[in-house]
Write a structure and sequence with these properties.
By secondary structure, the chain is of the alpha+beta class. Helix content is about 30%, strand content about 25%. The two termini are about 25 Å apart. The model has no long low-confidence stretch (mean pLDDT about 95).
Length: about 300
């Protein structure tokens, strides 16, 4: 049995099984917090600064003052990585979580009276074989009835722990053995419960505008890589009609980077899965991260 990894909780480094939090924490009571998940490929953190940049943008939006700066959180994370290093396989993928809540609630249950904030940093292993199969075969998506909360109600670019909107979408899709694809309140394509969505039309990438989706770090890297590969990218609203005319579909997320989509609610792309543009981006991410999921495909 593998040893428990180390995690950080409110000033202490403990084993996972020793981490404990009061049920009066506002993260438990109200989902009052923000979070980030940074991938760790082959024991190396990927784009940690980008993730922490977004974490601190989320702090400003939800009005949480962590009380320590971004550089200190980065140092805590790197120190924790060094402690966990002997316990991490050389070829592995982990999700590194940064969870921050407003802290302990008071009897008044007033948000401004809560605190100090709770900071939890932890490692979670990724099932690389299952991820490798998804990358090789593509995943199936279903259009779900639950619509993405509009930015006029809750800013989509903030990574908040109040996830019931996306969880309901995930459960609706799971009922038909699929992953979710959410629409916005106007019927435009938005995103998956935990990933951004792209289509390819005539060699051009289309993805919903940032104001309508979580501003994904991997989404940002796709823009960078596409510029390097001379692939055009357009941020625009598009409908299921546009999707039905597309050559390729794919999802982007921190851990699997680019995941081909083989079907969306019965609509199949006109290109093979993965398509040529998707393949180029997948190969570019292998170079970027130094990790190739294809090595874990069983014969």
């Amino acid at each position: 049995m593998s040893q428990e990894l180390y995690c950080y909780l409110n000033g202490k480094i403990v084993r996972e099984g020793e981490a404990a939090l009061s049920p009066f924490d506002r993260g438990f009571l109200w989902g009052d917090g923000v979070y980030e998940i940074t991938p760790c490929f082959n024991r190396r953190l990927y784009r940690l600064k980008d993730h922490l940049d977004r974490l601190y943008r989320s702090f400003r939006y939800v009005r949480i003052d962590l009380g320590i700066g971004q550089e200190e959180v980065e140092k805590l994370t790197l120190d924790l990585l060094q402690m966990n290093l002997p316990l991490l396989a050389e070829e592995s993928v982990y999700r590194v979580g940064h969870w921050v809540t407003r802290g302990m609630d008071t009897p008044s249950m007033v948000a401004r009276a809560a605190g100090p904030p709770t900071l939890f940093i932890f490692w979670r292993p990724v099932a690389v074989e299952a991820a490798a199969r998804s990358l090789a075969e593509g995943v199936k998506l279903a259009i779900v009835p639950t619509r993405r909360v509009p930015p006029q109600c809750l800013e989509t670019r903030a990574k908040v722990t109040s996830k019931l909107n996306q969880i309901l979408a995930e459960l609706e899709a799971d009922a038909v053995d699929s992953l979710s694809l959410m629409l916005d309140i106007h019927g435009n394509v938005s995103e998956n419960s935990i990933a951004n969505f792209f289509i390819v039309k005539k060699g051009v990438l289309w993805t919903p505008p940032a104001q309508n989706v979580l501003e994904g770090i991997t989404r940002k890297v796709v823009f960078e890589l596409s510029s390097r590969l001379r692939i055009s990218v357009e941020e625009q609203h598009f409908s299921l009609y546009d999707l039905a005319q597309s050559d390729e579909f794919f999802l982007t997320s921190s851990v699997t980077c680019v995941t081909p989509v083989r079907e969306v609610h019965g609509i199949r792309p006109s290109s093979p899965v993965p398509g040529p543009v998707t393949k180029r981006l997948m190969a570019a991410f292998v170079d970027e991260t130094g990790f190739d999921f294809r090595k874990y495909l069983s014969d």
